């Protein structure tokens, strides 16, 4: 009897413990909702040739320079043409960790899939190497932001007679990249990391445009997005990482007693005055519109970048009926009907405004920075990648004299790379100093007056 009671007691304890375990809610990680940035934070863009192109990264830099003019972020491009996840691991210490990043974006996979239909062993290699990349990033205290590989444009590949590809690979490789990207999203979800979907917007815009233009492409060589496609990529980052979308909103109204009042976001307004033929006021914005170089114009239109991610709104109620010239710092930037002003006008895409021209000057200086010293810096690490691959091959074939000779030549070529990289990084910082001398919005005078 005592044994029976003891057994029943133990069974009740076990059941109670299991019930308590079942009652405890499962704690899932939360994926990164938005970047939390402050002055001095470092961001590294890790990737392959699509990052090495220095376009989507440049455009995101332009966003940071103009949207946060008083915040000095340290931004480093760590893209190398032809890179796979394994290659990124070989240069990680000096090309990623050395910059002490808070966030590391990772755009890898285009080369890892080897441009063939899905092959499980190939994917498992990518999977393990990517897990190692994520682990290394987290080990240095940074947050990884995984990005779905970009689109492989099968139609563009078929239209390129100079490059002969296997028909099955051409037809199926974009699906392989979709699979890789979905896996990246799953890892980001499980671990509570950041994620940016680069694949979907490129594919969706291409699909929609081909309804009217069957030859449309954003990726002429099937692999590397041109400037327009890279704008799509940059806007995907702003969309997916919870960054501010609007520059400013100015709403001015005339009260029944004749006084003018304003509600604003994104800056400070002062000295609102009624004139004989309109009003004037002073406006000091917190930021500039997101303006990109001319070669990116198609991408700006396709993504509606200005309206969606750079809104600069002006709304005025109480004006006398008529058409009004808008002058900013004495420069006429447009003529608007009083009813349009009452609804609101958008200025972010108006190339005549002083703030647009200021933002364009920032973008052009950053273009110079990317096309010169940043380009030279990435060439250095391209040479290192060749060396790392040769070293791996030589270690696997120690009796291969040709490989051993090649390794010695490449060893000499990469000697001193850390010091040269530091010099080029300093040169890039000097150009960035110039950007931060030109990216602060000054106080500007706005005048609305009846047009002749």
Automatic annotation (TrEMBL):
UniProt signal peptide: 1-19
Cited InterPro entries: Ester_Hydrolysis_Enzymes, SGNH_hydro, SGNH_hydro_sf
Protein name per Swiss-Prot or TrEMBL: GDSL-like Lipase/Acylhydrolase
GO molecular function annotation: phosphatidylcholine lysophospholipase activity
Tagged with keyword Plastid: no
Domain SGNH hydrolase-type esterase: 45-230
The entry's keywords: Hydrolase, Signal
Highest rank taxon of the organism: Bacteria
Keyword presence, Signal: yes
């Amino acid at each position: 009897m005592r044994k029976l009671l003891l057994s029943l007691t133990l069974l009740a304890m076990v059941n109670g413990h299991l019930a308590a375990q079942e009652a405890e809610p499962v704690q899932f990680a939360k994926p990164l909702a938005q970047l939390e940035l402050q002055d001095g934070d470092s961001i590294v863009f890790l990737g392959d040739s699509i990052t090495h192109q220095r376009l989507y990264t440049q455009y995101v830099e332009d966003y940071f320079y103009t949207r946060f003019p008083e915040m000095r972020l340290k931004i480093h491009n760590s893209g190398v043409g032809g890179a796979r996840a394994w290659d990124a691991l070989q240069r990680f210490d000096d090309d990623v960790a050395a910059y002490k990043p808070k966030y590391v974006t990772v755009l890898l996979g285009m080369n890892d899939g080897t441009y063939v239909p899905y092959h499980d062993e190939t994917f498992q290699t990518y999977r393990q190497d990517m897990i190692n990349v994520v682990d290394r990033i987290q080990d240095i205290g940074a947050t990884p932001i995984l990005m779905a590989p970009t689109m492989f444009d099968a139609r563009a590949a078929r239209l390129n007679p100079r490059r002969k590809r296997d028909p099955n690979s051409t037809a199926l490789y974009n699906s392989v990249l979709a699979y890789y990207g979905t896996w990246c999203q799953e890892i980001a979800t499980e671990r509570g990391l950041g994620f940016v979907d680069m694949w979907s917007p490129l594919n969706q815009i291409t699909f929609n445009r081909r309804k009217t233009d069957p030859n449309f492409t954003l990726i002429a060589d099937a692999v590397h997005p041109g400037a327009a496609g890279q704008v799509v990529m940059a806007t995907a980052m702003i969309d997916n990482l919870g960054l501010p979308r609007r520059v400013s909103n100015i709403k001015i109204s005339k009260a029944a007693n004749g006084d003018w009042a304003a509600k604003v976001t994104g800056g400070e307004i002062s000295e609102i005055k009624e004139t004989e033929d309109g009003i004037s006021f002073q406006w000091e914005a917190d930021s500039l519109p997101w303006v990109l170089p001319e070669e990116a114009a198609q991408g700006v239109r396709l993504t509606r970048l200005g309206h969606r991610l750079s809104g600069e709104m002006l709304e005025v109620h109480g004006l006398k009926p008529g058409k009004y010239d808008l002058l900013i710092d004495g420069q006429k930037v447009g003529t608007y009907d009083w009813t349009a002003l009452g609804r609101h006008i958008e200025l972010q895409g108006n190339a005549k405004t002083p703030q647009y021209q200021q933002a364009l000057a920032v973008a052009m200086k950053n273009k110079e920075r990317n096309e010169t010293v940043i380009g030279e810096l990435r060439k250095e690490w391209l040479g290192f990648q060749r060396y790392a691959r040769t070293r791996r091959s030589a270690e696997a074939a120690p009796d291969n004299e040709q490989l051993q000779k090649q390794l010695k030549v490449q060893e000499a070529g990469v000697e001193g790379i850390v010091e040269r990289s530091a010099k080029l990084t300093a040169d890039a910082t000097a150009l960035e100093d110039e950007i931060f001398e030109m990216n602060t919005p000054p106080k500007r005078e706005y005048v609305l007056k009846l047009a002749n």
